[in-house]
Specification:
342 residues; alpha/beta; Arc Repressor Mutant, subunit A; D-Maltodextrin-Binding Protein, domain 2; 7-stranded mixed β-sheet; two-stranded antiparallel sheet; elongated
Length: 342
């Protein structure tokens, strides 16, 4: 019997995608080539693995049995490869995934810290939404990924890196309209304020909706921005409020003059940032070393953010952009909000 690891990988992809076209795209071969490989595997094993239908495929009972074996074999081979590559800790090539609402803020410091430890370390970064990162970790395309809890998938291990609290971002006029009372700075008290969020699919959007107690169909929610940079500029122009992660605050305030930031009353809403890997990955030394670097960089950034934004809930907590930049957009903000800035 001559079953190859490549054939098992192709079969696993087909079982996951349930379609020859999508599976072929996933493993980077043509659809006819994938079909030939699956037929050869079936011939070698002596039974059909899938029932071919017009638009999809269904595993046969024998196919489900073989799939379980294939997953175990592929996981063990992946573990063997990683054990050899990571012998001695964090070295060689690192494939690291990261969600877009963290990547531009933490990556410069992380890459500098990693390379200062090992100048020969080859770091390959993939920025993608959570669902895609999880799929890439499970398929072995990524060694680990930085994302926010919850990580809703079995077979993954995680290590907490830091807590990233949410600040309320808006123009001075919009923030002043909320009032000075304690209740005005609770996420659930924003029900009558226009809330700008990232497009669907970003975990930050799900977290913001949850802490504010709103559903996607709420009349005062606009989910259209593709990045925090775009979102910040909309907020600075007076189109609404948003929840700004601490780790992004300094960068976005500098880039989008006109944004003021205020802290919510305790307990402040927050997201937990974690480093995730496959549970089956052997030799956790490299993972722990990587987590230590990420944790040190992330916590340092958060400490600076909290020093810049003290835990107060009055209007003195609102931090504007530099005065010179603020003056340039006063007219725009007055037009958008219908009031002049104080």
């Amino acid at each position: 019997m001559n079953v190859t690891l490549r054939q098992l990988g192709y079969f696993k992809a087909l079982a996951e995608q349930r379609n020859f076209g999508r599976a072929a795209e996933r493993v980077n071969i043509s659809q006819p080539a994938l079909s030939v490989q699956i037929k050869e595997l079936e011939s070698t094993l002596g039974q059909k693995l899938v029932e071919r239908r017009a638009r999809d495929v269904v595993l046969t009972p024998f196919g489900r049995l073989i799939l379980a074996h294939a997953i175990r074999v592929l996981d063990e081979m992946q573990g063997l490869t990683e054990a050899a590559r990571w012998q001695g800790g964090l070295a060689g090539r690192l494939s690291l995934g990261i969600i877009p609402t963290i990547a531009p803020y933490i990556l410069p410091g992380v890459l500098e810290a990693l390379r200062s430890r090992d100048i020969s370390l080859d770091v390959q970064v993939r920025e993608a939404k959570t669902d895609q990162l999880i799929a890439d970790i499970q398929s072995g395309q990524l060694d680990a990924a930085i994302m926010a809890r919850p990580v809703a998938s079995e077979g993954l291990s995680e290590r907490l890196l830091f807590e990233d609290r949410f600040l309320l971002a808006g123009t001075a006029v919009r923030l002043s309209a909320l009032g000075q009372g304690v209740d005005a700075l609770r996420p659930t008290s924003l029900a009558h304020s226009p809330l700008l969020l990232l497009e669907d699919g970003h975990c930050l959007t799900d977290q913001a909706l949850e802490v504010c107690g709103r559903g996607r169909g709420h009349a005062q929610i606009d989910m259209g921005a593709s990045s925090l940079g775009t979102l910040s500029r909309l907020v600075a122009a007076g189109f609404g409020l948003t929840l700004m992660p601490e780790i992004a605050a300094a960068t976005e305030v500098r880039a989008a003059p006109g944004i003021y930031l205020r802290r919510f009353t305790p307990p402040e809403p927050a997201r937990q940032i974690v480093l995730v890997r496959r549970h089956s990955t052997h030799d956790e030394v490299w993972f722990e070393k990587l987590a230590e670097v990420l944790q040190a960089v992330g916590q340092s950034m958060i400490s600076h953010a909290r020093a810049d934004q003290p835990e107060r809930s009055d209007m003195s907590d609102a931090r504007p952009a530099p005065e010179t930049a603020q003056a340039d957009v006063t007219g725009t903000l007055a037009n958008r909000d219908g009031h002049s800035l104080p």
